[in-house]
């Protein structure tokens, strides 16, 4: 009985701390002028799931509904997006089925992954936090120089 109360209290405190930290923590937004800005066509600082899907779909240069690694790297560099030297790793992380291309379903899954509260909209905060969680680990000291 006591252990059950402890778990409930611990869960409540954990959730409370998560909400408080989500409101106060502002992750770095080094990429905000990149993918997010390309997708946010109406400039409301929110990416709808269709906007997210559309911006990633622009990487499909030959319009065959598959994004090859060459297309991905070409579009990344052509768009002057940040972290160009890490673009091959970004491609690899998005290509979850390891088939060497990114499909529409992988793009949809990626966009849903960014939508933390599952409301069909990706706030700038959700995007920043998820981006940092996915890609911050690859930064090295040489990136800071």
Strand runs, count: 4
Walk across the major sheet and give the strand order.
Answer: 1-4
pLDDT averaged over residues: 78
Sheet of most strands: 2 strands, antiparallel
Shape, please? globular
The Rg value, from CA coordinates, equals 18 Å
CATH superfamily: EF-hand
Number of domains: 1
> In the CATH scheme, what's the topology name?
Recoverin, domain 1
Keywords: Signal
Pfam families: EF-hand_5 (PF13202)
Signal peptide: 1-22
Domain EF-hand: 82-117
Can you put this structure into words, describing what you see?
The structure is a single chain. The chain is mainly alpha-helical and 145 residues long. The chain has a single domain (28-144), classed as EF-hand (Recoverin, domain 1), CATH 1.10.238.10. The chain is built from seven helices and four strands. It has helices at 2-24, 35-39, 49-57, 69-78, 87-94, 104-114, 124-135, and strands at residues 46-48, 66-68, 101-103, 121-123. The strands form two sheets. It has a two-stranded antiparallel sheet with strand order 1-4. A two-stranded antiparallel sheet has the order 2-3. The longest helix is centred in the first third of the chain and has 23 residues, at 2-24. It is globular. The model is unreliable at 3-30 (pLDDT under 50).
Question: Can you give keywords for this protein?
Answer:
145 residues; mainly alpha; Recoverin, domain 1; two-stranded antiparallel ribbon; 7 helices; 4 strands; 54% helix; 8% strand; disordered N terminus; EF_hand_dom; EF-hand-dom_pair
Give the topology, please:
Blueprint: H1 2-24, H2 35-39, E1 46-48, H3 49-57, E2 66-68, H4 69-78, H5 87-94, E3 101-103, H6 104-114, E4 121-123, H7 124-135
Antiparallel strand pairs: 1-4, 2-3
Helix pairs in contact: 3-6
């Amino acid at each position: 009985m006591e252990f059950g109360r402890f778990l409930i209290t611990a869960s409540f405190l954990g959730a409370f701390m998560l909400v408080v930290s989500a409101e106060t923590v502002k992750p770095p937004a080094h990429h905000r002028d990149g993918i997010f800005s390309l997708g946010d066509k109406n400039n409301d600082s929110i990416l709808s799931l269709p906007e997210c899907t559309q911006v990633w779909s622009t990487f499909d240069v030959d319009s065959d509904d598959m994004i090859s690694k060459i297309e991905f790297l070409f579009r990344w560099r052509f768009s002057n997006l940040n972290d160009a030297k890490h673009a091959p790793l970004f491609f690899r992380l998005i290509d979850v089925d390891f088939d060497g291309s990114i499909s529409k379903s992988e793009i949809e899954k990626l966009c849903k992954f960014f939508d933390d509260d599952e409301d069909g909209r990706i706030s700038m905060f959700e995007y920043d936090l998820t981006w940092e969680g996915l890609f911050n680990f690859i930064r090295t000291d040489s990136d800071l120089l």
